Amino acid sequence: MLELKDLRVAYGHTQAVDGIGLTVGPGEAVALLGANGAGKTSTLRAISRLLPSDGELTFDGADVSRLAPEELARRGLVHVPEGRRVFASLTVHDNLLVGRTAQARRDALFSPDDVYDLFPALVPLRKRHGWALSGGEQQMVAIGRGLLASPRLLMLDEPSLGLAPIVVKAVYQALAEIKQRVSILLVEQNATLALTLCDRGYVLLSGRVVLSGAAAELGDREALLDSYLGHG
Ligand code: ATP
């Protein structure tokens, strides 16, 4: 469904992504792991066409490396960015509906009610403004908004970052259900957590893939994984 070949991203003289290849198949959940600065966010942003890049980028067999980000989203490649980006002056419900095109409504795999079922914590907060939400609530809204954009592949950038353990658990429970319906490409620094959800993973170091395989295999190579993730 998604295939990258020799993806490269540079910021001036810094080669943030240095020839990455990866695939995400239909129905798969794939983790992109690595320490701070390994190039995970740059990879996601390049896939979404938010950053200029070199290399091949194929989605559903079509070359999408020159498409505008909106067109990619229209085709079902939806990005939930790091930092959540919830609108402070809109309510939870209106934040969910932001950017929901007529097409997304027509093709909808998820309804607003589905989002409230996945994240029951948002039900009593429907009318609360973005500025009054906790980090975890904002993360739930950001994922919910992504779901209402009618994704076929949902890309998530560090959805657990800075959240309390109980909130991380709620978010990952929802992701396990979401995974039954759409493909996922998940960026995480917390490899253990990501590998409980994902089928496969890639580990990045300095903009390159240094290790990849089935989640169980990666989990078994904990010492090596830890050395790449910077806490070994
Ligand atoms: P993090 O978890 O901190 O987001 P990451 O694995 O997602 O890390 P990137 O954010 O993709 O890594 O960064 C990869 C490299 O590119 C790092 O060396 C970083 O310093 C550099 N970099 C990222 N954004 C920029 C930028 N806007 N300008 C210059 N260098 C950048």
From TrEMBL:
GO terms for biological process: L-amino acid transport. It comes from the Bacteria. The keyword Transferase does not apply. It holds the Pfam family ABC_tran. The keyword ATP-binding applies. One of its GO terms (molecular function) is branched-chain amino acid transmembrane transporter activity. Keywords: Amino-acid transport, ATP-binding, Nucleotide-binding, Transport. Residues 2-231 form the ABC transporter domain. PANTHER family: HIGH-AFFINITY BRANCHED-CHAIN AMINO ACID TRANSPORT ATP-BINDING PROTEIN LIVF (PTHR43820:SF4). Belongs to the ABC transporter superfamily. This is Branched-chain amino acid transport system ATP-binding protein. It comes from Sphaerisporangium rubeum.
